[in-house]
Design goal:
Elements (H helix, E strand, L loop, with lengths): L5 E6 L9 H8 L5 E7 L5 E5 L8 H5 L5 E6 L3
Antiparallel strand pairs: 1-4, 2-3
Length: 77
């Protein structure tokens, strides 16, 4: 029996300008994993935060104009 794949999302806070495109794309795909946080970027934008289990669609990664997100499959040990 195959188990569901697990994914992690890493946000490079130095690259992120806080446009939140990733949050909106995640919500539109039904993931709702990325959410707004209280933290601000160096430019004053709002940093996203990972809040949940990533489904691995990689839409946040594809649409990020700053290449600030990285989605990776978690390998079982």
């Amino acid at each position: 029996m195959e188990t569901a794949k697990k994914f992690s999302v890493t946000i490079d806070e130095d690259q992120c300008k806080g446009c939140l495109i990733c949050v909106h794309v995640c919500e539109s795909r039904g993931g709702k994993i990325l959410k707004e946080s209280d933290k601000k970027t160096a430019l004053g934008g709002t940093l996203p935060v990972v809040d949940g289990v990533c489904i691995g669609c990689r839409w946040c990664e594809r649409y990020c104009p700053d290449f600030a997100l990285n989605v990776e499959e978690i390998q079982d040990a």
